[in-house]
């Protein structure tokens, strides 16, 4: 990539005008100093590393993919696009990218266009080698990370020997799970783009990643990366689960399983705020492994009727606060007399006794299990998670 950047800078200096190099799917690969005419499309391409779909469609319609040599494309005021000169970058009869020049203030001369065309074959060869190297590396990394998360012992050795991860560092796994209802190819692409952008900023953490059908995985070395960074990098809303740091890469599969369970809890328990750390899940660490069919029998009818939601919320807060009437009244901003009335109604309707420790435990666990299964959806109340 450094060779491509140097070649772009040298060509821009010879021509005396800025340029931008894209790969064949119009992702920005390199660009020179932008000291000439500039439009919104050039600026956004540099910031986002790719052009928008409507601009790509406009340029394709102008014939840039089929052009055997340099082509001038008209401006498109409705897109904020100035006229351009496009030089297709080819190698061995294959299209590998595009050189772009803004054709304004002043327009390019024929001599400049010819010189840019003469440089294209060398850039095409460099892009070809870059795609081979990155494709091979990406494929090997994908296989190794997949094996690592499945617990295959050789996968850690392969990544360490390839220099992708330091041997003596701890590893932490985080899982980003989209809030979208159904997995889809566009959703997976969005997750991939978000993780790739984040990896460029986290190079000191030796990041690795994997995108599965319904979640994305980030592995980092050393001190854990803030989950806020992962949230910010994702182009779609996600919840984040964080596994515990492990002392060796061979243990990454355990951190991954913890992160997946934590993300599942974060998705089902809004009170956690979109991020859940396995080490701080408390009772939810156990409940994610239990079926929810056998809840406290007295609560079944209360879960089924929305009018009882305030009673369930009161009961859960009371149990969360170790049965303290004072703390519960304060948390719910409820008069003590009203609190006692609600708890008495729970005892009557659920045919239970809140003075019985076993009953309190069964009720408490049932409320948390019902949260995870979606059968109990409390409002966002203070002190209730």
UniProtKB/TrEMBL annotation:
InterPro entries on file: CdaR-like_regulators, CdaR_GGDEF, PucR_C-HTH_dom, PucR_C-HTH_sf
Coiled-coil regions listed: none
Pfam family, one: GGDEF_2
Domain PucR C-terminal helix-turn-helix, chain residue ranges per copy: 311-369
Source organism, top-level taxon: Bacteria
Residues covered by the CdaR GGDEF-like domain: 171-265
Family membership: Belongs to the CdaR family.
PANTHER family, alphabetized: CARBOHYDRATE DIACID REGULATOR, DNA-BINDING TRANSCRIPTIONAL ACTIVATOR ADER
Protein name: PucR family transcriptional regulator
């Amino acid at each position: 990539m450094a060779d491509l950047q140097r070649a772009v800078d040298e060509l821009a200096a010879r021509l005396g005008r800025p340029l931008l190099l894209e790969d064949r799917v119009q992702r920005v690969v390199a660009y020179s100093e932008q000291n000439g005419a500039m439009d919104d499309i050039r600026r956004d391409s540099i910031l986002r590393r790719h052009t928008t779909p409507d601009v790509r469609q406009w340029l394709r319609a102008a014939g840039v993919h089929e052009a055997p040599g340099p082509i001038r494309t008209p401006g498109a005021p409705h897109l904020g696009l100035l006229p351009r000169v496009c030089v297709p970058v080819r190698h061995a009869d294959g299209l590998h990218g595009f050189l772009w020049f803004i054709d304004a203030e002043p327009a390019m001369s024929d001599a400049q266009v010819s010189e840019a065309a003469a440089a294209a074959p060398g850039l095409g060869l460099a892009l070809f080698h870059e795609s081979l190297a990155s494709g091979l590396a990406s494929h090997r990394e994908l296989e190794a990370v997949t094996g690592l998360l499945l617990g295959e012992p050789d996968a850690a050795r392969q990544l360490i020997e390839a220099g992708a991860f330091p041997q003596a560092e701890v590893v932490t796994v985080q899982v980003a799970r989209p809030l979208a209802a159904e997995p889809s190819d566009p959703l997976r692409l969005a997750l991939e783009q978000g993780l790739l952008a984040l990896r460029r900023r986290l190079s000191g953490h030796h990041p690795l990643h994997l995108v599965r059908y319904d979640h994305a995985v980030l592995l980092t070395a050393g001190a854990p990366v803030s989950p806020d960074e992962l949230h910010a990098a994702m182009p779609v809303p996600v919840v984040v689960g964080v596994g515990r740091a492990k002392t060796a890469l061979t243990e990454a599969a355990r951190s991954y399983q913890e992160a997946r369970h934590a993300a599942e809890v974060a998705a089902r328990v809004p009170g956690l705020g979109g991020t859940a750390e396995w080490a701080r899940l408390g009772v939810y660490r156990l409940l994610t492994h239990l079926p929810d069919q056998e809840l406290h029998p007295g609560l079944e009818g209360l879960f089924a009727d929305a009018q009882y939601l305030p009673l369930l919320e009161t009961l859960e807060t009371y149990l969360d606060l170790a049965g303290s009437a004072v703390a519960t009244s304060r948390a719910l901003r409820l008069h003590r007399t009203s609190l006692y009335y609600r708890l008495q109604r729970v005892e009557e309707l659920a045919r239970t006794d809140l003075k019985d420790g076993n009953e309190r435990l069964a009720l408490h666990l049932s409320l948390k299990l019902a949260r995870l299964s979606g059968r109990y959806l409390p409002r966002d109340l203070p002190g209730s998670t």
